[in-house]
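pipeline: protein-struct stage 2 | run 1193 | Zinc/manganese transport system permease protein
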Amino acid sequence: MDKFFDFGLTAELLRYDFVVAALFAALVLGLLAGVLGPLIVSRNMAFSVHGTSELALTGGAAALLLGWDTGGGALAGAIVAALVLGLLSRRSSDYDSVIGVVLAFGLGLGVLMLWLYKGRSSNKFGLLTGQIVGQDFASLTLLIGCAVGVFAVLAVIYRPLLFASVDPAVAQARGVPTTMLALVFAVLVGVATALGVRTVGSLLVLALMVTPAAAACRVTASPLRATLLSVLFAVVSAVGGIVLSLAPGAPVSAFVTAISFLIYLVCWGISRSRRQLAQ
């Protein structure tokens, strides 16, 4: 175990610029995931996040095949996926089936594009599981710009969106444009999901977008406290996952998912204990 977690090597690696850039990217992703997560959980959009992340993989694979920036490709794929899912699933009863259909088609295209790509296999693997060396100046600029845009749009629509998330029927009866809000929020989630592909990978970005928020919602019903806890849990998972992955050189996503799942188990235990005390 000491050989696997070499703390001296970890401390040495933390001095490198690419590691610092990766930690900064993880911090921004944690903030994004933490703020969006409680709304994703309250709107039952976990499967949608999974579908969007897989279609971000398709966009990244297309960019890899064409020699373009994979971050931009993943972002384009996620935005297109969010718009397609929003337009095809006007009725809530159709939502899961539409996600399944589009996800299967897009994932098949992504696998084909990865097979056609003849470059380094590490580039393919990085799209699936994330890699800390993928953060350069251009990718950080894209990350910061998109994060600022997401926060700005969310600040404008947050109150009606929260209303529509808590009680959609009453919100619609009071004239809140629930359909438009759902479409805009789907695009915001798509952007945040795509930004996480380069660091966490498309397969397990769900752990960062959903698990911290689900853990926070286990211990509080307050939207504000749930958001603050979700941000804390997401940042700890993302930054901690990168730090723990340094010495063994293992995929970041493995540690991000482990930390976030451990946090969820603790919150689940707290919630269960509260219920037993109340009874």
